[in-house]
Amino acid sequence: xxxxxxxxxVFFIALVSAQIDRENLNYASQMVRSxxxxxxxxxxxxxxxxxxxxxxxxETLADKIKKGLKILKTKFYSAKNCxxxxxxxxxxxxxxxxxxxxxxxxxxxxxxKFCRTIHLIHNFRENHQHNKLFKxxxxxxxxxxxxxxxxxxxxxxxxxxxFAPSTSxxxxxxxxxxxxxxxVDWRKEGLVGPVGFQYxxxxxxxxxxxxxxxxxxRKCRISNESVSVQSMVDCATEYCEGCDGGxxxxxxxxxxxxxxxxxxxxxxxxxxxxxxxxxxxxxxxxDTPYVHDFYYGDAEYIKRIVSSYGPVAVALCVGDDFTHxxxxxxxxxxxxxxxxxxxxxxxxxxxxxxxxxxxxxxxWDLSWGQDGFAKVARGHNLxxxxxxxxxxxxxxxxxxxxxxxx
Length: 406
Ligand SMILES: *[C@@H]1O[C@H](CO)[C@@H](O)[C@H](O)[C@H]1NC(C)=O
Ligand SMILES: *[C@@H]1O[C@H](CO)[C@@H](O)[C@H](O)[C@H]1NC(C)=O
Ligand SMILES: *[C@@H]1O[C@H](CO)[C@@H](O)[C@H](O)[C@H]1NC(C)=O
Ligand SMILES: *[C@@H]1O[C@H](CO)[C@@H](O)[C@H](O)[C@H]1NC(C)=O
Known about the structure:
The protein has two domains: 2-134, no CATH class; 155-402, Cathepsin B, Chain A, CATH 3.90.70. Helices cover 38% and strands 14% of the residues. The chain has twelve helices and ten strands. The protein has helices at 2-14, 22-34, 42-55, 58-76, 90-102, 110-135, 153-160, 204-219, 229-235, 248-258, 299-308, 320-323; strands spanning 141-143, 184-185, 285-293, 312-316, 325-330, 341-351, 355-361, 373-377, 388-395, 401-402. A hairpin with a 3-residue loop joins strand 6 (341-351) and strand 7. The longest helix is centred in the first third of the chain and has 26 residues, at 110-135. Mean pLDDT is 80; it is low at 1-6, 11-56 and 68-79. Residues 96-156 form the Cathepsin propeptide inhibitor domain. Belongs to the peptidase C1 family.
């Protein structure tokens, strides 16, 4: 009953500015009932609520709402980390309810659900403000709610964006790279594997390494399999800390001896496991890993390497705007510069209106951005995206090297 009462109270706040109608009232109470996640026997509760919903009068529900509002005010509404001014509107609560259905969300406790509601509506407002700028031509990308929208900034930082402190080694850049093509989309040339999802693990670095290796395996016709992220999370320990961050270069360096293991032989765990030697199952090995640091960023170098080589891994500094990117070319003023996330660049091009961009692949599932991909402004070292590049020359199990074009 507690969930019903408290959430009805959230709903009630909306009534200050909006006229309630019976349909909305039923909708809200149904949503609340169907998500009674503390109920140990969901099927019995569902049938119970079905039979009661038609007989329940508005009066008793209104009473419950009033009672709930009292509790809400004393218990939650003043909770420091979960406030929202002005309070949620009816329209915004609808948005939240719909979102929980779309993304199949259930929450453990009432307090959590309350805080998630607040975070989601906060993001909804920020997106709305930002998209107004987009309409006026003052922004180059659009924002939208996605499956990450109920996370707090802190959760996103600590869960999805962990990156080990920089200990990256400089290696000599290749000297004369071929001229770059005008635009590249390695997806169209079959070098890009499926989009992954980190879940609760800060292993973006391993996903980015895997994307690079998948590109080379496909380019050299060694294998079309996806590369095991978990093998690197568990086994690559030099300057990498599993779910607490790492560098793509060191993930690939580990595969010199550890081997490039297919996901089918070393599946994803969403966490850290014990390292298992699967060298016998390797489909290839890293021959030479490379990392280059460019203090001021070097878009031209990265463009040339992407053009002739394939997908590469890069690091950048991301925050709220990036988390809610939905379309267009990502660009913000005064982006942070201390890198906290790794992704792969799988192409580049120029949008006639929105400018030059990198085509990037993220590891935040298909629900993020454009089916897991995004366009990020190119040539500005935006968020430090052009300050480092990681890639590798690989070989097959017989030792035939897949040469990097020079
Ligand atoms: C919600 O779950 C609690 C705990 O199991 C239960 O007592 C209560 O009746 C449920 N409420 C509804 C509306 O189903
Ligand atoms: C609330 O935020 C503060 C700092 O912003 C943090 O230290 C604290 O752990 C947060 N509390 C909860 C319950 O998240
Ligand atoms: C929604 O979540 C439940 C419980 O986690 C799961 O059993 C169900 O398959 C999910 N449905 C969809 C459409 O993802
Ligand atoms: C990978 O897929 C491509 C395109 O579908 C195909 O031509 C190629 O033979 C496949 N390579 C391997 C090693 O299976």
